[in-house]
Fold this sequence. Notes:
By secondary structure, the protein is mostly helical. Helix content is 79%, strand content 0%. It has helices at residues 5-33, 35-42, 48-62, 65-77, 83-96, 99-105, 114-117, 121-138, 142-168, 175-183, 187-201, 204-215, 222-235, 238-243, 249-280, 291-309, 313-323, 334-339, 350-378, 384-412, 418-454, 460-486, 489-492, 495-518, 524-555, 561-569, 573-585.
Amino acid sequence: MTFDFFSVLSLIGGLAFFLYGMNVMSSSLEKMAGGKLEVLLKKMTSNPFVSMLLGAAITAVIQSSSATTVMLVGLVNSGILAFAQAIYVCFGANIGTTITAWIFSLMGIESEGFLVQMLKPINFSPILALIGIFLLMLSKKDSRRSIGTVLVGFAVLMYGMTMMSDAVEPLAEMPEFTSILGSFTNPILALLVAMLFTAVIQSSSAATGILQALSLTGGFTFEMVVPMVMGINIGTCVTAVISAIGTNINAKRVAVSHLVMNVINTLICLPLFLIGNAIFDWEIVNQAVTPMSIAVLHTLFNIVLTVLLMPFTKQIVKLIETLVREKKKPGKAAETDTFCMLDDRLLLSPSIAIAECSNLTVQMSSLAYETLIETVSMLYQYDPKTAERILANENRLDLMEDRLGTYLVKISSQEISVSDSHAVSRMLHCIGDFERLGDHAVNLLKVSEEMHTKGITFSEEAMRELEVLTRATMEILTLTTNAFRENSPALATRVEPLEQVIDGLITKIKDNHIKRLQNGNCTIELGFVLADLLNNYERISDHCSNIAVALIEVVQDSFDTHRYLNDVKSGDPEFTRVFGEFESKYRV
């Protein structure tokens, strides 16, 4: 058996399968985790040990310390996590990423026993692949299909690893390969090669797995592999450093801290290893490594890193703050801080990105609500300062719709779970209506300004009718805002009956105005002002109805608004009951 051109093709093909399988598996695992990742990260406490454990758990789930660190860069850039908290998570991420190496280490098991043989991933992965294919083909549930994708991804990964192992097997007998390996006895060269290779493929788990596959040739010794493992840990930080370009100061510090911690640990451990070997001449140093011993080294190195450096976190924070200094930029817009949570880096973890969009959309709903409340108060007492605030709020709502809409479209192009897809649809359907509520606030402001400038006042009867309509409109706003905040279809079902009552009130007020006009108790000018008021109140209730229908329909994965409204109005007993309740409450 010789290492020829076809062996090179097999090696490249195996590497491609390996990296693709790892990517599919990790992305599917993260998709399965869904909002749980966001919940875990937001439960970060001041307890460093808890933060470290959570970092290890999250990395073990998504199978990549690089992905976790990039996620942290996005979270710190968005203001969700503090810089100090993120460092503790980085410690955990280094430990969590070693779980992959332990799975790969099983391929080095040698035994004739059937049960022991079945522990080898290459032997049980075809069974997992078969189960995965059945889940993908036969299951309609998104969670089961994600499990199927994970199983197939793992099988593809292991197939790629086997291809690489088989391709490099002839290298053990080649003198040229032996001479190349001889150069890796230089620890600096071994460290640099491993570091550069990991930086290129951007995954320490993948780099470790490839090293484990190559170790089956029997040509790699502990003397070579110890610096390589250290180089792999440094190389994996490149992804986070690249991702930190264009972020705020604390996000840059997170990326640099991950790199600095691994470099410090290498500067401590590598000299100790070399000096210890020079003094004691350890026999194990020249022995060939196995996939299992590489897994042990990888885990041991990262545990040592945590044990050595975690007690000095405060000093590390000061060091990073010294290395990455903040540049003062005067006159920075306040809105930048609000929208920094819409960070493209968070798209690597769609569930977290969706959660932050949801928080911002809730802020948008509250801003629309508060703006309308202030505007309605202006109908009774005009205030120029409040008018300026209302106009600023409307501009803010426009900007929020634009930023959120663009970002939600980006999220919808990612692989997301059904529940996350529903959340995105709900927000996309609602943000336009929240923005339009701000427009109607400005329209009402213009009416109040006209009334103030011209000294217009309505008759006592007209004012009484408008007060009833205003109370009904404020209630529908409150109902809609609460239903959206709580994502409550039950509250949302009460909106449409009230909207119908408001339509009836507006019709009645118009009729009453015409009667007053005919009796000479009102003027045409007042009629124009009243018409503007009523039209805006009607449109406000219509937008509330749109939001409520979206909340209800998204649960059913259907957005046939007209059919829904026709159904509830066609003798639905609950609709009739609630309509009667509001009709008796708001009479003119």
